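Tutorial handout. Part one gives the primary structure; part two gives the three-dimensional structure as tokens.
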Amino acid sequence: MYLKSLLELPSSVSWCERKYFKSEYIAEYWNTLTGIFLCVTSIYAYFKNHGFTKLYYSNILLFFVGIGTMMFHGTLVYFWQLLDEIPMMLIVIEYYRILTTELLLIYYIQIYTINYSIIYLFIPIIFASYYIHPKLQVILFQGGLSLSIILLLYTCYHINTNLNKIFYKINPFNYVDIHESKIDDHRNTELEIKYKKKTISRKIHVFNNYDLVDTTNSLNKFKKYVAIKNNITYHSYQGIYSLVFSLFVWNIDNHYCQHYIELHAIWHITTSLGMYSCNELLRSYIILNKQLVQK
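Part two.
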């Protein structure tokens, strides 16, 4: 009986799209249809993340967001609204958990973190607040999700701004004094040099016949690091642009319903792009963590 009554509860929020306009069986036709983008994004990311088990859970959650979105907009029932909203919040918490507990990169920078499990306390409160007032449920969900996103962005920002410091702290270039060595003027010369009490053959770069830098290993690591960092930078900006545009569209859809501006479907598409960027960002962090820390 309780499940039946739950399935009959109306959603605490309704969107601008005209109800049952395209179909008598689907409440919000375009909002329902575009939910498939979230499912497709999650499936693509899941298979692309083969071997990155840390991201599997968030990919599965994104798939449930897509299913919940389609059922929510198709029925405007509170139960399906929860299946849309709760996994959405869980994804952000999972990303934050990975950054703060799974990756050792976080220990190389000074940053304030909180126990991610505390955020889980919001979920039963969000669920129960509907029975106090539907508007309260909307406020608590949006507030809890916003706080989680702020924590995630704050952490990503501090990691990104400290990437160079982390890399050079873990992989410093090795300087060797060769004042007494006879060397050629051209670069990339193979020499036998004294390096850390061992005689080894190294490819070197010569600078004015005084100092040289042993770059056989360091340069290779640096090239890999630059490639990963460029990927992080690209998806960070892409994710931010998608997020800002999505929020812009979402707010217009909320505040101009009287003009029949139906933009929530676009929110689903741009959010899908933003979630893909978040997945790629976390994936790059995991790769970098393996390269720099877990050797």
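Part three, for discussion. The longest helix spans residues 218-255. The chain has two domains: 2-169+217-292, 174-214.
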